[in-house]
Amino acid sequence: MADTDVQLQPKKKGLTRRQKRKLSRGIQYTVFVAAVIAFAVAADWDRLQNQFAQADIAEQMFPDIITLALKNTVLYTLSGFAFGLVLGMVIALMRLSSVGPYRWFAGVYIEIFRGLPALLIFIFIGVAVPLAFPGTEIPGGTYGKVALALGLVAAAYMAETIRAGIQAVPKGQMEAARSLGFSPARAMVSIIIPQAFRIILPPLTNELVLLFKDSSLVLFLGVTLEERELSKYGRDLASTTANSTPILVAGLCYLLVTIPLGFVVRRMEAKAQEAVK
What we know:
This protein is mostly helical. It has one domain (65-275): MetI-like fold (Orthogonal Bundle). It is 80% helix and 0% strand. The chain has helices at residues 2-8, 17-42, 45-52, 55-60, 64-95, 100-115, 118-132, 141-168, 171-179, 184-214, 230-241, 245-276. It is flat.
């Protein structure tokens, strides 16, 4: 009889896996909201507004921050990206070459310029090059120096991205091109590389975003008032006004470009995944 009573007793049921997930998410949301509220209550918003959000100072920055600083930043970025893309393509093809010295040179280049901070590259271009080659001027002035410095850094990353893209193209594409009478070089240029670029377009666009931010290092090359980019422009005006509002406005201008680019990258990645499926 006792055994029957034990069997008739309902079994105690714990939380299901789905209920545990819901409980876990609820706890996380609660902690996050509590942290945000605590930060909002603890912060001294009046002091922050006085230091970072002075409307009259922000108004003084327009339109120069757009027509001068943002324009220069975009030009520096595009010139560096263009040079880096061309050099990166050359380095990638050298890395894939059957000629040993080409592969060794490309490997050494990639390791050096991926390992060195971009700041040191800018200092090298601005200081070491004039000392090593007295009287030699880099074409394009400051724009040429920035394109060279940014391009040297970007090429090391782009080369590996391009190499991976080329190797991701099925080998049958090259074999099919050769069977149609294409030379290896022509097949690479006409068949393989276009397909590779469709694969690597999202990471290349992401590299453009990184270069846009790295353009702030141009100040180490020494620039005139007309050659200032966003960071330099914001710091100079912040020193003049003894207020940090220009730095905040400069940061918002960066976001004005990087957020849409980030959205484009995510859309391209989503389309690439749909194409694979």
